[in-house]
Design brief:
A hairpin with a 2-residue loop joins strand 1 and strand 2 (about 130). Helix 2 crosses helix 3 (about 35-45). The protein folds into two domains: about 5-75, Orthogonal Bundle (434 Repressor (Amino-terminal Domain)), CATH 1.10.260.40; about 80-135. A two-stranded antiparallel ribbon has the order 1-2. The chain is about 70% helix and about 5% strand. The protein starts with a helix and ends with a helix. The chain contains six helices and two strands. It is an all-alpha fold and about 140 residues long.
Length: about 140
């Protein structure tokens, strides 16, 4: 089980990372959240708790889901990066299967066309009951 002091530090670190990513100062985020600058500083330093209402409000201001402020390690982007990685792999697999199917179909059509061309070429060489090649 995680120690509450560690959780406070995780939340504070995540708030700071998200705030700086959005290019907000502590004063700007504090004003938007309706709290004092010292309170904001203490949150980021892991010295004070956020109530649930403030946690939800802060995450909304930072364009995050509330659970993302509770996640350790500090990288709240990890879930999104993981999802994108999985989707990229799935799309790559789908694309490779589609490309293989298309390639197989094209090769089949080429083979069928070559066979028909060969048959036409050999059948047209026969005239009047004997092979044109035999005339030479």
């Amino acid at each position: 089980m995680i120690d509450s002091n560690i959780l406070q530090k995780i939340i504070g670190s995540n708030v700071k990372k998200a705030r700086t990513k959005k290019k907000l100062t502590q004063a700007q985020l504090a004003e938007l959240a309706g709290i004092s600058i010292p309170h904001m500083t203490n949150i980021e330093r892991g010295k004070t708790w956020l109530g649930v209402d403030l946690l939800v409000k802060m995450s909304s201001l930072l364009d995050l889901e509330p659970y993302m402020l509770l996640v350790d390690p500090v990288s709240y982007d990890a879930p999104l990066e993981y999802q994108l990685h999985r989707q990229t792999e799935e799309f790559r697999d789908i694309f490779q299967r589609a490309l293989q199917t298309f390639s197989d179909e094209v090769n089949s059509q080429i083979t069928d066309t070559e066979e028909k061309d060969y048959q036409i070429a050999h059948s047209s060489r026969k005239t009047d009951g004997y092979n044109v090649a035999e005339k030479k």
